[in-house]
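Quarterly update, task 2.4: 3-methyl-2-oxobutanoic acid-bound model.
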Amino acid sequence: MADKVSVPTLASMHKSGSKIVCITAYDFTFGEIADQAGADVILVGDSLGNVVMGFPTTIPVTLEQMIHHTRATSAGVKRALLVADLPFGSYNASCSQAVSSAVALMQAGASAVKLEGEYLDEIRALTKAGIPVMGHVGYTPQSANRFGPTKRQGKSSDGSSLIDSCLKIADAGAFAIVLELIPESVAGQITEAVGCPTIGIGAGPHCSGQVQVLHDVLGLSEFRFKHAMREIEGRTLFKAAIGEYASKVRSGRDKT
Ligand code: KIV
């Protein structure tokens, strides 16, 4: 097994130009599969609200649910850096709320946490407490009520406010920043400007790495996002496999 990935590993990958591979996972089996497939970072994303729980947004996801899924995923992850999302409402009120929520995720097996937006004091407080923080800018799903249906960010401007925001987040101590649905030229400028790795999703190729939602890569989601890197048609394959199993049982060809 290659060496365990740590925050300094990602910093040196960024420096040397080797791309960082990040994918979400929400349970033991897929944590183990993603880890064995060589992902560098496994994110227990609050996208579990969408793909596991069937919610329309990530807003209903609770800290307790994140703790539960982080504990399950961490049981399968040996090499990758395990990052857990701080869900909506678990860090927005104060630094002490952010620290106590993050401590619970770290005690469930995470090695770092991710939060959305310019929570600079909270990033400083978490870093001070020894908790590595990943930032997240551009389209931030926890602000769906503010953004409305328009997803892509920084389109109408030159992206300078996004660049400024990333500089502040990196300066506050974030070890990496997710750039979601922003123009690739802006993502390239951010990657040049900040000292830490950038992890893109729908932000083009000029990032230090990419993150994708597991269900999108495996083709499990019914909906096809433009930015999804769908590698297999899992939904079709799994339906066929379950259908095959059902027909064996119904025809008496089962082996039990
Ligand atoms: O929750 C999640 O899966 C995420 C990624 C899309 C970056 O935040």
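Highlight for this quarter: Residues 24, 43, 45-47, 85, 178, 180, 201, 211, 213 surround 3-methyl-2-oxobutanoic acid (CB under 6 Å).
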